[in-house]
Amino acid sequence: MTKKKNGMPFEVYPTPGKGKDGKNILYARPVGGRRMRITLDQIDDYCAKNSLLNCGQLKLVMTAFKQWASEMMAEGYRIDTPIGSFAPKLRMKGEFTDPDEVGHDDVELDGVDYDPGKIWTEAIGHWMHDGFRKVERTEASGLLADKECLEEALADSLKDGYTTARRFAYQAKLTLYSARKQLNKWTEGECPKLTKSRMGQQDIYTEI
User: Fold this and answer.
1) What is d(CA 15, CA 88) in angstroms, rounded to the nearest whole number?
2) CB of 177 within 8 A of CB of 155?
3) Global pTM?
């Protein structure tokens, strides 16, 4: 297979499901890791060089949007914008079956629900002139040996206060099995980094 030099880089990973040949069915995802990240400062600089925006304007807009949109969402509003819609997501603190038993202290914020619709699919598609480019995936053993990368991936996946094996696997570019193994390792020993609890059908890992 001829290697491409352009296009969106992607890797393939196995799923638990089996195909007709008995092998694991594969799925594709964009290449992650530190080398494929870009900061708001870099986007701001790019916009200043390639549009009519002045340096710093994008950051100011994003700061203002975060401040006022969060205030509106705190009142229960869904925010519709040109880049998608945002709405507060709630969850029960316990298991209830009787609506009359649910009080205002029995509900908590569970992050934000983001619905991009078709906006980003169409916008990204506009630039996808070169299609996709397959990149050979780094073996899990090598990724697990990179402690700095693992710590960074863990910090990113804990931004909501907790993480799951699937979320950490995505951030660390690991298989679900390797991600779960590493997370469990961080819950062990005299000075564990994480605690593990069960929520529904999955394990939740919280930083100590």
Assistant:
1) 31
2) no
3) 0.58
